[in-house]
Structure prediction request, 194 residues.
Amino acid sequence: MDDAMPVEFAADREETFRAASAVLDGFARLNAAKTEAETAFAALPRFVRGFAESAVSAEILRQTGQGLPAWAATIEGLTGEVASARGLLERAENGAALDPADRERLRRVAAEVGGQHAGLGRLLRCMEDAPPKVERVPRQFMNGERRRLALENLRAQTGALRDALAAMPRLEGGLRQVAEAGEASPGHPADTLR
Prediction:
């Protein structure tokens, strides 16, 4: 048996764990800023709030093909999947500690992370394009202080999503590597790792 395998697995697992943590941290910061934005929207006069929510929703749907509720559900689902995978990584001491169901779960999460990357990239571009649109909102609908807060919040959400997206390719590749490490193969049975 190759003695480097456990060391290599440990390094892959640690790097993948860090990538999962970075994605989860980005999503947590995104959700916190989103909650702040929702609170600010709720404080707007009813007419202004309805107009703003409608305009924002329509723009996101137009640019990404998905509305805000769908994006919230996507991020929530992906957060749960990544947290579950990170939990598996935390418990796996070496490649042999992963059973076939764990390996399949890691592969499934890797596929989900990869599958959502492009869509979340479209959402990020939509968010990056938003500040000039916020600046064009008439002053009677959004005064200077509200505009400043909206732009700060948008920057916080954009930065958080950008950070999560930056870690997603490392996470996807790492999950695949960890899932494959130490698997039984002809001439290299997994139980030699124990």
About this structure: Residues 4-43 form the longest helix (40 residues). The chain has one domain: 4-181. The mean pLDDT is 86.
